[in-house]
TrEMBL record:
Its main location: cytoplasm. Monomer. Binds 30S ribosomal subunits, but not 50S ribosomal subunits or 70S ribosomes. Residues 116-145 are annotated as: Disordered. It comes from the Bacteria. This is Ribosome-binding factor A. It is found in: Cytoplasm. Residues 124-133 have a biased composition (Basic and acidic residues). It comes from Hymenobacter lucidus. It holds the Pfam family RBFA.
């Protein structure tokens, strides 16, 4: 579980990295800049694990390689933005966030399931009608019903 300090720092990094991708370094990413879905910070605030979403990008792996190749430039641009707020600029480690692709896959799997729908006729069918609560078993021989 992350501490409040880690959460605040992760939020700061997420906002500033998005600004770096969109405003400071748009020339590195032709088309749409990568989206940042999650930022996780180590307890010593020295390493930031950044998960990039590839919803709008056509190929996520090429986008990830492009970001990893330019990670030094990205870290320098981030340092210019947050240098007055933090002591140490964290090392940036980028990962591809495939949770949206997984959700789409699970949606497709659930869409192919054949689940019979219950209809109002089934509710009135005497075969499926509820008989009420089950009878209570007798615990003692002299117990009356």
């Amino acid at each position: 579980m992350e501490s409040k300090r880690q959460q605040k720092f992760a939020s700061l990094l997420q906002q500033d990295l998005a600004a770096v991708f969109q405003r400071d370094l748009p020339h590195l990413f032709p088309g749409l800049p990568p989206g940042i879905s999650t930022v996780r910070i180590s307890p010593d605030l020295g390493v930031a694990r950044i998960y990039l979403s590839s919803l709008l990008a056509s190929n996520g792996s090429t986008m990830l390689e492009q970001v990893r190749d330019n990670s030094k430039i990205i870290r320098q641009a981030l340092a210019k933005r947050i240098r007055k707020q933090v002591r140490i600029i964290p090392e940036l480690v980028f990962f591809l966030d495939d949770s949206a692709a997984y959700a789409a896959h699970m949606d497709a799997v659930l869409g192919t399931l054949d689940i019979p729908a219950t209809t109002p006729e089934d509710a009135n069918d005497p075969k499926t009608e509820d008989k009420g609560p089950a009878a209570r078993p007798k615990l003692f021989a002299d117990e009356d019903e």
